[in-house]
Write a structure and sequence with these properties.
2 domains; transferase; Aspartate Aminotransferase, domain 1; cytoplasm; lyase; five-stranded mixed sheet; EC 2.6.1.7; binds 4'-deoxy-4'-aminopyridoxal-5'-phosphate; cysteine-S-conjugate beta-lyase activity; globular; Aspartate Aminotransferase, domain 2; alpha/beta; seven-stranded mixed sheet
Length: about 450
């Protein structure tokens, strides 16, 4: 055969030119930018303390690490090979057993549960499986940022409805429960074009845990307009102050139209393992399986085995003080309180979260610290977060990143901190804040 080099010798010069046809598929238009890529890089370059991206810097529980080690070095060498495409059998079985308890209904592990590469892929499967060109999908703002590009890539149109913050109570700290939907506004977003609503409770970035009454309102509208509910519940165990997480799939009329999404990353503090799942009726999950088998097909077997063992342990200890699902929120609640104190002391008004490992704080008092940017349409919180990491070494995420383009400037006085961190990390953050406070108050 002639070499590739030799063969170009015979090409007419015009045929050797670079490709000129459009490369990017049209469905990617407008989805190129990603807030995490930008802020993770800034944090890596400048931060001394990183409370930006949401992941714990403390170790996962020993029982889970040991389960992974056993999966890798034990006798069953088949754990190094492919397993069932829609979920490793021990994992779908234990998830079905667990969710039977939580949802109060019988579940078939093979048809009512599907394992995914993190909750992220579960979301992707939902949008690809259900959203048609021209369909509308209601997204409650602020929202986990990938919902919007994923809806658009599927050909759908996102329709946004904001949680509105109640007026501050004099001198008292606010709670994430003070972010509320206006029922009339929410109802006005439903139409015969609406295919689905995305619900995220407990909510990232606010830490809001939707009350039963709020969920009943959403459920009522879903049933009335025959709409699907994609329920992202990755923070289901991270709920504080004795509050209860209600699963919308357990409400009347909702099982049949809801896909519930979970994540081992959040459940067991192992975000790097990327094991997630979906739970729902077969008539919905069958379409998720189609997307899954034609894209990712399969998730890492050993990680699934370890997560299965983690759930087996948790099922035995369910509701007891030794359960990780009891211990983790307890520890996080203390970290939350520590962080609230640190922020309150420097005048960044924290809004106390009822769940998740995030809290947002009001930075409107800090406007004089950040240089003006005349002519820029970048929201204040984004400029603030960049300034803070560069000048103070503290990384956080602007809340406006969790709003659609048109609404970013309506909510630009808040930044989000992740408090799933070692006490030493939180103390280092407190030291930065205290020093900053001294600098601001000294004449
Ligand atoms: N949904 C929400 C609300 C999240 O916060 C995250 C992770 N930050 C995900 C989904 C993705 O989870 P995973 O890491 O399991 O893909």
């Amino acid at each position: 055969l002639p070499s590739a080099k030799a063969s170009t010798h015979f090409l007419h010069p015009s045929l050797q030119a670079k490709m000129s046809r459009p490369l990017q598929a049209r469905r990617l238009e407008g989805t190129e930018k990603n807030i995490w890529v930008e802020f993770v890089k800034l944090a890596a370059t400048y931060s001394k303390v990183n409370l930006g991206q949401g992941f714990p810097d403390f170790p996962p529980p020993d029982f889970l690490k040991e389960a992974f080690v056993r999966a890798l070095s034990g006798e069953n060498h088949m754990l190094h090979q492919y397993t069932r495409a829609f979920g490793h059998p021990p994992l779908v079985k234990i998830l079905a057993q667990f969710f039977e308890k939580l949802l109060g209904r019988d579940l078939d592990p093979m048809t009512n549960v599907m394992v995914t590469v993190g909750a992220y892929q579960a979301l992707f499967c939902c949008f690809q499986a259900f959203v048609e060109e021209g369909d509308e999908v209601i997204i409650i703002e602020p929202f986990f940022d990938c919902y919007e590009p994923m809806v658009k890539m599927a050909g759908g149109t996102p329709v946004f409805v904001p949680l509105r913050l109640k007026d501050p109570k004099d001198g008292k700290l606010m709670s994430s429960a003070d972010w509320q939907l206006d029922p009339t506004e929410l109802a006005s977003k439903f139409s015969d074009r609406t295919k689905a609503i995305v619900l995220n409770s407990p909510n990232n970035p606010l830490g809001k845990v939707f009350s039963r009454a709020e969920l009943e309102l959403i459920a009522h509208l879903c049933v009335k307009h025959d709409v699907l509910c994609i329920s992202d519940e990755v923070y289901e165990w991270l709920v504080f102050d004795g509050k209860e997480h209600t699963r919308i799939a357990s409400l009347q009329g909702m099982w049949d139209r809801t896909v519930t999404i979970g994540s081992a990353g959040k459940t067991f503090s192992v975000t790097g393992w990327k094991v997630g799942w979906t739970v729902g009726p077969n008539r919905l999950l069958q379409h998720l399986r189609t997307v899954h088998q034609n894209s990712v097909y399969h998730c890492a077997t050993a990680a699934q085995e370890a997560v299965a063992q983690g759930f087996q342990r948790e099922l035995q200890l369910y509701g007891t003080p030794d359960s990780y699902f009891i211990q983790l929120p307890k520890e996080l609640q203390q970290k939350r309180d520590q962080m609230v104190q640190s922020l309150d002391a420097v005048g960044m008004k924290p809004i106390i979260p009822e769940g998740t490992y995030f809290l947002v704080a009001d930075i409107s008092e800090f406007k004089s610290d950040v240089p003006d940017a005349p002519g820029s349409d970048e929201p204040y919180d984004s400029r603030f977060a960049k300034w803070m990491v560069k000048n103070k070494g503290l990384a956080a995420i602007p809340l406006s990143a969790f709003y659609c383009g048109a609404h970013k400037n309506n909510y630009s006085n808040f930044i989000r901190f992740c408090f799933a961190k070692e006490d030493s990390t939180l103390k280092a953050a407190n030291d930065i804040l205290q020093k900053w406070k001294r600098e601001r108050t000294s004449p």
